[in-house]
Amino acid sequence: MSAVQQETTVTANPTADAESRATRLMKRRSRVRFYEIVIWLAAIAAYFVLPSKMLILTEIAILALFAVSLDLVLGFAGIVSLGHTAFFGFGAYVAGLLALHYIAEPVIGLIVAGILSGVLGLLTSFLILRGSDLTRLMTTLGIGLMMAELANQMAWLTGGADGLSGFSLNPVLGLFEFDLFGKTGYLYCLAVLFIGTMIMRRIAFSPFGLSLKAIKGNPMRAAMIAVPARKRIVTAYTIAAVFAGMAGALLAQTTSFVSPDVLAFHRSADVLLVLVIGGTGYLYGGILGAVLFTLVKDWLSVVTPQYWMFYIGLILVVLVLIGRDRLARWIEYLPERFSKSKEEGR
């Protein structure tokens, strides 16, 4: 076929040509980036290089899953939530109660906690469909506060202020027993983080994820091109609740303890700060932010136990005033392949 005939064919089928270009764009956006491979290899290497730091590495993995779940609704749908801890804490209590009274298998408890947290997310998602960002902020905050008060008042079920304790878990999949050094716990949490991130990554870089970004950018324009904004928001909010509940379940299973602290407001504030540090809209910001936030907090709490929160606040102010773009210019000095991957991932 000559070049003229090819041009005529393309011109005669503009819809097919547009679909072909869209397909190529989606494939290019969804392919695995170099920096992603580096992150996961570093997480695996930490198991061998830092054998005495398993507990803090486990904490990072749990916080990262929590942050990535929030990024799905904040970074892609543009919904700011101060009550995401409601699903985190609910998942923790579900996993703790299952292990205490019914099933001590960690994977089953994890799945059940995720499903029930998703149901809670679905039931509460309709409360955030109306109003402005401020209305949604206050609504989600109210949901989190109500859940915290319920956990405190229903002492017959949750243990109240004393929390749930005295439960133990079976080996993961009947093969890997939890140890005092936290090695099994870290690998377990890392595996869940990896699977959860891959699932949310697939969602984020699918047509569904692109529609969420359209809603975030301009809800009215998205509605004009027949994007069902309400359904998309409800679906994203529910999926995020599933993985937030799983993060809470991991905390309960690795510590064998659940208290009302899992529903405290500071957890919602912390996870938002994690995303401020790591960036939103590409999921891995939640992982990088969790690493930096946890390590800095741990270091500052040792160096200055009384004033570490002051320095965390100072870091936040610097990020806001100077701007992420200026602070991120160090990436220009990295290898070209990494720089391009980072830019395309955003």
From TrEMBL:
Record-linked InterPro entries: ABC_transp_permease, LivM-like
Annotated TM spans: 34-50, 56-79, 86-104, 110-129, 141-159, 185-212, 233-252, 272-295, 307-324
UniProt-annotated location(s): Cell membrane
Keywords: Cell membrane, Membrane, Transmembrane, Transmembrane helix
Main localization category: membrane
Membrane topology: Multi-pass membrane protein
The keyword Membrane is assigned to this record: yes
CDD domains recorded: TM_PBP1_LivM_like (cd06581)
Keyword match Protein biosynthesis: no
Record protein name field: Branched-chain amino acid ABC transporter permease
Species this chain originates from: Neorhizobium phenanthreniclasticum
